[in-house]
C-alpha cells in the first residue's frame, strides 16, 4: 500500500513537471498585452478592478522653483497614499531634480495631473501593461506546486525505508525551490500592479545648454592643454619604445671600452730608442796637431 502511494506521488510530481513544461503554451497564449502609449488619453481611462494592469508614466516639467516643485510632488504622492521611491536633486550647473513616485492606480490620473500643474510640461509618456493572464498563470502554477509539496510531505512520514525518504526529500526540496521562485515572481508583479510608477524630471525654465565647442580664451586654453598632454604622452611613448635598445647599446659600448682598456694593460710597454752621438772619424784632429 505504501509502495503504491510512493508511485502515485512520483506520478503526481511527473504530472506537475509536465504541466510546467507545457506552461510555455499557456505563457504564449496568456502573455501580457503589449504596453500602450498615449499620454493624457490613456491616463484618463478608468481603472478596471477586474484586470491586473501596470501603469507607468514619465513626465518632464519645467518649474520656476525646482526645489519647491519637488517638495510639492512628494506631498502629492504621500497625500494620494503613495511614497517616494527615489529622489535626486542637483544644484550645478543648473538646478535639476528626478523623483520616482509610487502611487495607487486609483490616484494615478489625479497625481499625474497635479504634477503637470507644477510648471510647464515638456513631455509626458504614459504606458499601461495588462498582466492579468500572467497573474492567473502564476497563481495556477503556485496552487499546483503547493499541492505537490503537501503530498510529498505526507509521503515522507509514510515512506517504508531510508532510501525512499531520501528520494522523496530530494523531490520535495526541488518542488519547494520552484514554489518559492513562482511566489517571488507573483510578488513582483503584484507590487507593480498595486502601485503605479511615475518618474518626474524637473528643470528650470532657462536651464543653460552646456556646449563644448564655445570659442574663446577658455576653449583655446583647453585646446592648448590637450595638445601639451598629447605631446607629453607621445614623447613618453617614444622614450619607452627606444629605452630597451638604448640600454642594450650602452652595454655593448661599455663592454667594448672595458675590453680595449684590458688589452692595453696587458700589452708590454715600448722602450724609446737610445740615440748615441757619433764621435769624430779616425785620424781626425784639430789643425796643427
Report the sheet-strand fraction. 15-25%
Mean pLDDT: 77
How far apart are the first and last residues' alpha carbons, in Å? 167 Å
Summing up helix and strand content along with how strands pair, one would put the structural category as alpha+beta
- Indicate the radius of gyration in whole angstroms: 45 Å
Q: Could you give the count of β-strands? A: 6
Strands side by side in the biggest sheet: 1-5-2-6-4-3
The major sheet is characterized as: 6 strands, mixed
Which of globular, elongated, flat, extended, rod-shaped describes the shape? elongated
Indicate the topology.
Blueprint: H1 2-21, H2 23-29, E1 36-37, H3 40-43, E2 53-62, H4 66-79, E3 83-90, E4 96-103, H5 108-116, E5 120-130, H6 132-158, H7 162-194, E6 196-203, H8 217-266
Parallel strand pairs: 2-6
Antiparallel strand pairs: 1-5, 2-5, 3-4, 4-6
Describe the protein in words.
A six-stranded mixed sheet has the order 1-5-2-6-4-3. Helix 1 (2-21) runs antiparallel to helix 6 and helix 6 (132-158) runs antiparallel to helix 7. A hairpin with a 5-residue loop joins strand 3 and strand 4. Helices cover 57% and strands 16% of the residues. The protein has helices at 2-21, 23-29, 40-43, 66-79, 108-116, 132-158, 162-194, 217-266, and strands at 36-37, 53-62, 83-90, 96-103, 120-130, 196-203. The chain folds into two domains: 2-203, no CATH class; 218-263. It is built from eight helices and six strands.
Notable features of this structure?
single chain, 289 residues, six-stranded mixed β-sheet, 8 helices, disordered N terminus
Amino acid at each position: 500500500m505504501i509502495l503504491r502511494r510512493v508511485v502515485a506521488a512520483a506520478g503526481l510530481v511527473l504530472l506537475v513537471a509536465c504541466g510546467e513544461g507545457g506552461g510555455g503554451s499557456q505563457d504564449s497564449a496568456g502573455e501580457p498585452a503589449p504596453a500602450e502609449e498615449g499620454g493624457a488619453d490613456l491616463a484618463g481611462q478608468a481603472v478596471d478592478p477586474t484586470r491586473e494592469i501596470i501603469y507607468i508614466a514619465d513626465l518632464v516639467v519645467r518649474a520656476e522653483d525646482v526645489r519647491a516643485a519637488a517638495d510639492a510632488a512628494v506631498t502629492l504622492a504621500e497625500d494620494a497614499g503613495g511614497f517616494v521611491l527615489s529622489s535626486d536633486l542637483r544644484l550645478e550647473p543648473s538646478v535639476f531634480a528626478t523623483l520616482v513616485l509610487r502611487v495607487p492606480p486609483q490616484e494615478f490620473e489625479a497625481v499625474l495631473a497635479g504634477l503637470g500643474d507644477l510648471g510647464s510640461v515638456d513631455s509626458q509618456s504614459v504606458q499601461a501593461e495588462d498582466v492579468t493572464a500572467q497573474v492567473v498563470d502564476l497563481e495556477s502554477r503556485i496552487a499546483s506546486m503547493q499541492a505537490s509539496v503537501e503530498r510529498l510531505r505526507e509521503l515522507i512520514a509514510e515512506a517504508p525505508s531510508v532510501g525512499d525518504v531520501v528520494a522523496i526529500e530530494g523531490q520535495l526540496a526541488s518542488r519547494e525551490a520552484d514554489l518559492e521562485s513562482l511566489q517571488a515572481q507573483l510578488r513582483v508583479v503584484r507590487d507593480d500592479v498595486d502601485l503605479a510608477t511615475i518618474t518626474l524630471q524637473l528643470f528650470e525654465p532657462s536651464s543653460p545648454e552646456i556646449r563644448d565647442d564655445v570659442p574663446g580664451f577658455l576653449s583655446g586654453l583647453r585646446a592648448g592643454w590637450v595638445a601639451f598632454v598629447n605631446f607629453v604622452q607621445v614623447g613618453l611613448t617614444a622614450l619607452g619604445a627606444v629605452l630597451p635598445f638604448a640600454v642594450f647599446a650602452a652595454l655593448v659600448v661599455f663592454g667594448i671600452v672595458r675590453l680595449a682598456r684590458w688589452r692595453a694593460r696587458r700589452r708590454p710597454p715600448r722602450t724609446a730608442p737610445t740615440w748615441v752621438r757619433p764621435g769624430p772619424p779616425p785620424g781626425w784632429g784639430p789643425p796643427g796637431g
